[in-house]
């Protein structure tokens, strides 16, 4: 019922992308956004998120954008600034813990709910920014799970966390909030060979897949 109500309201207000559900876990009872997250259990979280996703989309011109991919389990210092050497929280964990717990809800959304958009996170995982991780955004998400939609960064000066060109090369298709700083970074990265024409065109294709999905339901 909740998902269907959200979907109806989005359609009535001409909102095509709902930036939710948030499927991080209740790892710490003091996390500032536990009210957004479903539970401490990855399977329960995944089931809830999948059912809400189906209710929201339900043949409407509305898609969900689950977040925050991945291991964004606390708010304090979740965003660093690579340019100013301001560090972000670093989620240190084994690959088994990452896959069995923190990635599981996202995997379920890709495989069971057919999502067409996903939002990366600001935090680090084992020393590398999550939103700039090729292993996460391309190897696991696309090559292993078969995700074909658009990957969007979290909002708010993402260009100061991960360079725009590096973000696209890692597998992000939309760098938010965009604007001249991001464009300059991507152009410079292209000139320096850090992001290729093929990677840029691929980002456009993924965005078009998301748009096509919305229009097919319209």
TrEMBL record:
InterPro entries recorded: Cellulose_deg_GH3 (IPR050288), GH (IPR017853), Glyco_hydro_3_N (IPR001764), Glyco_hydro_3_N_sf (IPR036962)
Highest taxon in the source lineage: Bacteria
Ranges where the Glycoside hydrolase family 3 N-terminal domain occurs: 3-208
An MF annotation (GO) of this entry: hydrolase activity, hydrolyzing O-glycosyl compounds
GO biological process: carbohydrate metabolic process
Keyword terms: Hydrolase
Keyword Hydrolase among record annotations: yes
PANTHER family: BETA-GLUCOSIDASE
Protein family: Belongs to the glycosyl hydrolase 3 family.
Name of protein: Glycosyl hydrolase family 3 N-terminal domain protein
Organism: Coprococcus comes ATCC 27758
